[in-house]
Structures are given as structure tokens and as C-alpha cells.
């Protein structure tokens, strides 16, 4: 007979879970579009990424069919160029990065003991932007007008003179749309990892996977803006005639390569690091011991991320750069092997000291180690300038980066998917099908790309749609094509296993792999809130230390179990120590992210079709929706229906001066600053390198207008800082007047900058010099206008009572934007007006 006390405890736990389901539950039907929960969004990212992967794989098969035989007429050159460009674009932009971000979005809160990511609506916006942007790009192939200049879109091939249709515009606008998603997820992950962990989880106690994702997210935040800027500049050149990359009017096509590879080489590690994080997470589980050298691996991960930003010219050794630069970037390209080797040796040591279990995920990890080490060795070969000259733009390079990207990303990803599959579905996959899939993919992959090294050494160039017989390339190409089809059969086997296991897989136990990390303390599949009570975690391996932790969490034995206020809550902690500082209340389901993404999609499509009036309307609608989104924050009743907390609990984050929004704004401005610094780099690069850089005899606009704009805000800044200092001390006197004054200043700044933009002497379509100045002024104009609007909204919120001494949070967030705008104004003034060589001075 059951113990009545146990039955009562179970009833209490069930009632508590029911209350949490009422607040956190996901709606069905059309309202499923409003879901902002990270579990659902992470799965959406991964399923969408998997669909794009299958699409990209089909494009690869079309190329291998074309290249299987010499003189093949299966595809013409134009079709091949479109398929080639779309294959690289889909795999790099629509599969690799979003898939890894989606897995991180799903796992990170669970691993860190949180209930959700810190900005759920931002995650939702990121997903819809990713989906819509990807569909726009892929639709171009179905319409026969896909991009055809290569997935790297080198100028001048992608410029209007050589690609006159809308093919390249699909790439430029669609990729910029998708990049919004990537940067959004990057900001979300950085702030969530730093500020919403379990109580007591100091940085040095985080799961190793979180370190990899933190580094990856920071690299996205800093590394993606150069490509976003490059895409904007190239689209402006194509649509409006601003000559950033046209030599005759003072531009330089190599500027595109610099901007692209400032993004492109870090992206290799953005893809690799989360995959390596999967390896570092799974190996200890299947070896039955902690990872060897945790601190050394963390240092290696951070070093890899840092060094990767100094390698972009590694891809440009043959474009004519100075020998000193070649030597520097060659050395840097080899230097990055050191922190990577630290991780490899840690994995080997863990295998050596443990007792490995060779389940399906472990097979993929061993395959990864073999293939990635081979890819790393060919990478060191390509870092040597003389060798790179010999094999540049040959099939050898294609083989190398497939070894690095497929071996370094796809193999660990499949290992991770098999490992976490019980988490997604509550069922186990088939060991037999999994092993068949592994061996088919492993054999097919090496047949395809190991042979391709040989083809490249024989001189076969990349990006060619056919070749003549008798050059020694016939048999290697045929073997590579056969191998690619074997690999695809393996992938199909894995997909079949994935589909079948949802219906026929054996039910999984609560911790089927005997894992150590906290995500296995949830139910399988997990509830939307992950944990009904939030435990204190002071160990890197919480489930090895306390195997009964899942049961105590489910009973509600830990913290933050009150839910009758209707808020979604998780802990806000100190970034270093993990000490609880506040309760972060999270927004619920909302239509606003979906509507905002739809407006941005209309903007993108109207720019593609050159219906600029509709584009203007869509841009205005996007801003209105995003501002409406920002209105439901802080002390707004929908954001915090009840501001009361329990006597022993800290305050809500919106009632403090250091909530996650400050960190979110800071990280966003870091990304914004990377974009601006890329623009500044373009200004100085063109002045230094462009062969026909044309400097006008007189200034092209009134510099005093820019100076007056900077001085106007500089004079107001001390007043602003004094008001905010009083607000931090609980005194909101003068806050309303200050926000009104800042709103007026922002609008006045915008008017001055608009006046400067309308200068008759400024001819952005005539000279690259003027075009860069035009973009810099437009950038500052947009920031000044937005800052003024944000301050006006803050003044209104002060008047209503949403911002006050009791809720001081929001003005401090907006203040960061003001200070950033001020810094940009002064830097622009010094770069444009006071940099003497720019105007022919000494």
C-alpha cells in the first residue's frame, strides 16, 4: 500500500507543475506562431536547418553528377554557377551557423539551470528572420534567377556591370536578412550565459559546452557585422550607383574581399567551436570520467576565438598583398593550430584515461577526430604561402575546407543529435541503423574528398562546370562522385532512423547515457519551464555528484517555486561568482516578433523588386512594431503583472539598476561598433590602397554641422549623467525634463546631419570618397533620430509611471545608446574633417 505522505507530496508536486503549465504553456493552432519559449524555438531552428541541409545536399549531388564525367552536358554553365553558389550559401549561411545556434538555444538554459533565455522575443524574431530570409534566397533558384557569382560574391563579378539581373540582389538582401537572426541569437546567448545561470554556478563551474557557446556567440557579435556592412555597400553600389568597389571612381574590389573574410575566417571557427563543444561534452560521458584539462581547454577555446580574427588575409595570399603582410598572416594561420591542438590532446587524454563505450555517438566522435586532424594538417599546408600559391583555387582547397567543415562540424553535430535525441523525443534511436549510417557516411566522405586532394594537386581548378578528357582528372572525379552518392545514402539512412525512432524507438530512461550535465535533470521531453524549482549548483558535474537531483527538482524542493503572480521568472546572477542578484522576469508569448519579421520580409522583397515606396512603408512599419514591442517592458503591467516578491527573494530586475537589458544593450552596441569600425576601416583602406582614390579640392559638406551635432550632445552629457546618478540613488527628480531635453537634442542632431547629407557638393555617385562620407553621415543620422525617439518614449513612460525611482532600469539602458552615438559622432568628425591626408594635406 502506498505511503499517504508520499501520495500527498506527489499531489502537491503535480499541482505545482499544473500552475507552471498555466503560465509557461505553449498555445496551439495559429497561436503557435506567438511562442517565444527557447525549447520550441531551438527545435524550430534545428528542423529548419535540417531542411536547408537536405536542399544543399541535393545541390551538391547535382554538381557531382555534372563533374563525374568529362564534357558532361547534364548542366549548362549558367545553371551550374547558380547551383554552385546556392550550395555554398545554403550550407554556410542557412545550415551550419543556424543549426549550431539552434542547438545552443535549446540546450544552454537547461545546462545552466535556467528556465529560458533572457530575451525570448529576440529569439523568436531571430527564427522568423532566418526562415523568411532563407526562403527568399532559395526561391531564387526555383525562379531561375539565383545568385551566380559564387557564395563569396567577389567583386567586380557580382557588381551590376557583370551581374546585371537581380541574382546577386537575392544574395545580398537575403543574407543580410539572415544575419539579423545570427546576431540576435549571438546577443541572446552571450547575455544569457553571463547573467542567467543557476545559483552558485561560477564561471569556472560552467559546463564546458557553455564556454564554447559563449566564445562562438561573441565571435558572431563581432564577426558578422563586416559582412553585413559589405552586403549593404555592394547593394548600394548595385541599386544606387555608390562606387565603393569600382576602381574608375575611386573604389577597390579588394575591399569586398577584406570585409568578406573579416567575417569569413572567424566563421570557420564559429562553426567549429560549438561542434568541438559537443565533443568536449560527450567524451567525458562515454569515457566515464571528467574532461582532462578543463582550464586549459577553456583557455584554448578563448584563444582560438581571439586569434581567428587575425587570419582573414589567409584567403588572399594571391591577390598581390605585400610580402610582410603575407609573412604575418602565414604565421598567424599556423599559430591558431596551438590552441586547437590543446583541445585535441585533451580529447585524446580523456579517451586514454577513460573506459570508452562505443555507442553510435562515440563512433561519430572518433570519425571526427580522424577527419578533423587530417583537415587541420592540410590547413597548415595552406598557411605556407608558396604552397598556397600552387594550389590556390584548385580542388585541393575544396577538399581541405570540406574536411574541416564536414569533419569538424557535421560529424560532431550528428554525434550530438544522437546523444540528445532522447531529450527531444523521449525515445532512443536504432543502434543498427545508426552504425550503418556512420560507416556509409565515413567511407563515402573519404572517397569523395580524400581523392579530391589528388585532383587538386593534378591542377584541376575549382568552380568549373566541365573539363576535357586526357588531363588525368577523369578517374578521380568519377571516384569522388561515386563516394558522394555513398555518403548521401548514409545521410538518408540517418534521416530514416531519425524519423522512425519517433514512432518505434524504445522509451528512454531519465538519464539514458548516465550523463553529468543539468539538461538531463529535466523531464524527457522537457516542460516549457525546464525546472519547476531552481537548484543551487556548485559542481561541474551535478548529476554525477547528486544522481537524485532530478527528483528533488521535480518535487519543488529548491528555489523560485511561487508562480501565482503570473510571471515567468528565472534567476539573474553575478557574471563571475553565480551569486543571485535579482529575479529576471521574462516576457510571454507575443505576435510582435512574427509581425516584425513579416514587415522586414516585405522590406526585403520590395527592395528586390525596386518598389521603393513600399520599402519605405515597410521600413516605417518595422520601426513602429519594434517600438511597440519595447513598450511592453520593465514596469509595464503586461511585463510584470505583480511586482511583489517573496520576503527572502531579491527584487525584480526591472526594479534594479543592473538588469540583463543593460548587458543586452552593451553587447548589441559591441556588434554595432564592429559594423562602424568596418566602415572606418573601409575609409582608411580606400584612402591608402585604392588606385584612383579621388580627393576633392574643397570639403564636400559643411564640417561645422557635424561638429555642432557632436558638441550639442557633449554639452548635454554632464546634465544627463547627473540625472542618472541621482536616479541610481533613488531620486527621480528632473528625469522627465532630462528625457524631453534629450529627445529635442536627438531630433536637432538628426536635422543637422540631414542638412549635411543634402549638401550639393556631396556627390556619392561620382566618387567613392563622397560615397563613404555619405554612409557615415547616414549612419549617424539614423542613430541620432532613433536616440531622440527612444528618449521621447522614456519621457512618456516617466509621465505614465512605468519609469521612476522604484523602476529606474530603462533610462540607464537608453543612456548607453546615447553615449555610443556621441562616440561615433566624434570619431566620424576626426576621420572626415580632421584627418589631413583625406583632403590632400600633410
From TrEMBL:
Residues 580-838 form the Heme-copper oxidase subunit III family profile domain. The lineage of its organism: Bacteria, Pseudomonadati, Pseudomonadota, Gammaproteobacteria, Pseudomonadales. This is cytochrome-c oxidase. Its EC number is 7.1.1.9. It is a multi-pass membrane protein. The keyword Nuclease does not apply. Pathway: Energy metabolism; oxidative phosphorylation. Keywords: Cell membrane, Copper, Electron transport, Heme, Iron, Membrane, Metal-binding, Respiratory chain, Translocase, Transmembrane, Transmembrane helix, Transport. Its main location: membrane. It is found in: Cell membrane. It catalyses: 4 Fe(II)-[cytochrome c] + O2 + 8 H(+)(in) = 4 Fe(III)-[cytochrome c] + 2 H2O + 4 H(+)(out). The chain crosses the membrane at residues 41-63, 83-108, 128-150, 170-191, 211-234, 268-287, 294-315, 327-353, 365-387, 399-421, 433-458, 478-500, 591-608, 614-631, 662-686, 701-719, 740-759, 771-796, 817-839. It comes from Phytopseudomonas seleniipraecipitans. The keyword Heme applies. Pfam families: COX1 (PF00115). Belongs to the heme-copper respiratory oxidase family.
Amino acid at each position: 500500500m502506498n505511503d499517504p505522505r508520499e501520495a500527498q507530496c506527489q499531489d502537491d508536486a503535480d499541482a505545482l507543475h499544473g500552475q507552471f503549465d498555466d503560465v509557461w504553456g505553449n498555445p496551439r493552432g495559429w497561436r503557435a506562431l506567438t511562442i517565444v519559449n527557447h525549447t520550441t524555438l531551438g527545435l524550430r531552428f534545428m528542423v529548419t536547418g535540417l531542411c536547408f541541409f537536405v536542399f544543399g545536399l541535393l545541390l551538391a549531388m547535382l554538381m557531382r553528377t555534372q563533374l563525374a564525367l568529362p564534357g558532361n552536358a547534364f548542366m549548362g554553365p549558367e545553371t551550374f554557377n547558380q547551383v554552385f553558389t546556392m550550395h555554398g550559401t545554403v550550407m554556410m549561411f542557412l545550415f551550419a551557423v543556424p543549426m549550431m545556434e539552434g542547438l545552443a538555444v535549446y540546450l544552454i538554459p537547461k545546462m545552466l539551470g535556467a528556465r529560458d533565455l533572457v530575451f525570448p522575443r529576440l529569439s523568436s524574431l531571430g527564427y522568423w528572420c532566418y526562415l523568411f530570409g532563407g526562403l527568399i534566397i532559395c526561391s531564387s533558384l526555383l525562379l531561375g534567377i539565383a545568385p551566380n557569382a559564387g557564395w563569396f560574391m567577389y567583386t567586380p563579378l557580382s557588381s551590376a556591370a557583370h551581374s546585371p539581373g537581380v541574382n546577386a540582389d537575392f544574395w545580398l538582401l537575403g543574407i543580410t536578412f539572415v544575419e539579423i537572426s545570427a546576431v540576435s541569437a549571438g546577443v541572446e546567448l552571450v547575455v544569457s550565459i553571463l547573467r542567467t545561470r543557476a545559483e552558485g554556478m561560477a564561471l569556472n563551474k560552467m559546463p564546458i559546452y557553455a564556454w564554447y557557446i559563449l566564445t562562438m556567440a561573441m565571435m558572431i557579435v563581432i564577426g558578422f557585422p563586416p559582412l553585413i556592412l559589405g552586403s549593404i555597400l555592394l547593394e548600394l553600389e548595385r541599386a544606387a550607383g555608390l562606387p565603393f568597389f569600382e576602381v574608375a571612381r575611386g573604389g577597390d574590389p579588394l575591399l569586398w574581399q577584406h570585409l568578406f573574410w573579416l567575417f569569413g575566417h572567424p566563421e570557420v571557427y564559429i562553426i567549429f567551436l560549438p561542434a568541438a563543444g559537443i565533443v568536449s561534452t560527450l567524451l567525458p560521458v562515454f569515457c566515464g570520467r571528467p574532461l582532462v584539462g578543463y582550464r586549459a581547454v577553456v583557455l584554448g577555446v578563448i584563444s582560438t576565438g581571439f586569434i581567428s580574427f587575425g587570419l582573414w588575409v589567409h584567403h588572399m595570399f594571391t591577390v598581390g598583398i605585400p610580402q610582410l603582410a603575407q609573412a604575418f598572416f602565414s604565421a598567424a594561420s599556423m599559430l591558431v593550430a596551438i590552441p586547437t591542438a590543446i583541445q585535441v590532446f585533451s580529447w585524446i587524454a580523456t579517451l586514454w584515461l577513460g573506459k570508452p563505450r562505443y555507442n553510435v555517438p562515440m563512433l561519430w566522435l572518433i570519425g571526427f577526430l580522424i577527419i578533423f586532424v587530417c583537415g587541420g594538417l592540410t590547413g597548415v599546408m595552406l598557411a605556407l604561402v608558396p604552397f598556397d600559391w600552387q594550389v590556390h583555387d584548385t580542388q585541393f582547397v575544396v577538399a581541405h575546407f570540406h574536411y574541416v567543415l564536414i569533419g569538424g562540424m557535421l560529424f560532431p553535430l550528428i554525434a550530438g543529435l544522437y546523444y540528445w535525441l532522447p531529450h527531444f523525443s523521449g525515445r532512443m534511436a536504432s543502434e543498427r541503423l545508426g552504425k550503418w549510417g556512420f560507416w556509409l557516411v565515413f567511407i563515402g566522405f573519404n572517397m569523395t574528398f580524400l581523392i579530391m586532394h589528388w585532383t587538386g594537386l593534378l591542377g584541376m581548378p575549382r568552380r568549373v562546370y566541365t573539363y576535357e578528357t586526357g588531363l588525368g582528372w577523369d578517374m578521380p572525379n568519377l571516384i569522388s562522385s561515386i563516394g558522394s552518392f555513398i555518403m548521401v545514402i548514409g545521410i538518408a539512412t540517418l534521416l530514416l532512423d531519425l524519423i522512425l525512432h519517433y514512432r518505434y524507438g524504445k522509451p528512454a530512461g531519465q538519464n539514458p547515457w548516465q550523463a553529468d550535465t543539468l539538461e538531463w535533470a529535466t523531464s524527457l521531453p522537457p516542460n516549457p519551464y525546464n525546472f519547476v524549482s531552481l537548484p543551487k549548483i556548485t559542481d561541474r558535474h551535478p548529476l554525477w555528484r547528486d544522481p537524485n537531483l532530478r527528483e528533488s527538482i521535480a518535487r519543488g524542493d529548491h528555489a523560485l517555486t511561487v508562480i501565482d503572480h503570473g510571471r515567468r521568472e528565472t534567476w539573474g546572477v553575478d557574471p563571475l561568482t553565480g551569486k543571485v542578484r535579482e529575479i529576471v522576469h521574462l516576457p510571454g508569448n507575443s505576435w510582435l516578433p512574427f509581425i516584425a519579421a513579416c514587415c522586414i520580409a516585405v522590406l526585403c522583397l520590395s527592395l528586390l523588386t525596386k518598389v521603393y515606396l513600399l520599402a519605405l512603408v515597410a521600413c516605417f512599419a518595422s520601426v513602429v512594431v519594434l517600438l511597440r514591442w519595447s513598450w511592453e517592458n520593465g514596469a509595464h503591467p503586461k511585463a510584470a503583472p505583480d511586482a511583489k516578491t517573496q520576503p527572502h527573494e531579491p527584487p525584480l530586475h526591472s526594479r534594479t539598476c543592473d538588469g540583463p537589458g543593460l548587458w543586452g544593450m552593451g553587447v548589441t552596441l559591441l556588434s554595432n561598433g564592429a559594423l562602424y569600425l568596418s566602415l572606418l576601416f573601409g575609409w582608411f583602406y580606400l584612402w591608402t590602397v585604392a588606385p584612383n582614390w579621388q580627393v576633392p579640392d574643397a570639403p564636400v559638406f559643411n564640417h561645422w554641422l557635424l561638429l555642432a551635432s557632436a558638441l550639442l550632445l557633449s554639452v548635454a552629457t554632464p546634465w544627463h549623467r547627473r540625472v542618472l546618478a541621482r536616479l541610481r540613488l533613488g531620486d527621480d527628480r528632473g528625469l522627465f525634463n532630462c528625457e524631453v531635453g534629450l529627445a529635442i537634442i536627438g531630433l536637432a542632431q538628426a536635422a543637422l546631419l540631414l542638412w549635411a547629407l543634402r549638401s550639393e557638393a556631396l556627390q556619392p555617385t561620382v566618387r567613392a570618397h563622397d560615397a563613404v562620407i555619405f554612409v557615415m553621415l547616414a549612419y549617424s543620422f539614423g542613430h541620432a533620430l532613433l536616440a531622440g525617439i527612444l528618449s521621447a518614449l522614456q519621457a512618456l513612460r516617466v509621465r505614465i509611471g512605468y519609469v521612476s525611482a522604484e523602476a529606474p532600469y530603462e533610462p540607464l539602458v537608453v543612456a548607453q545608446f546615447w553615449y555610443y552615438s556621441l562616440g561615433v559622432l566624434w570619431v566620424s568628425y576626426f576621420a572626415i574633417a580632421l584627418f589631413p591626408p583625406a583632403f590632400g594635406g600633410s
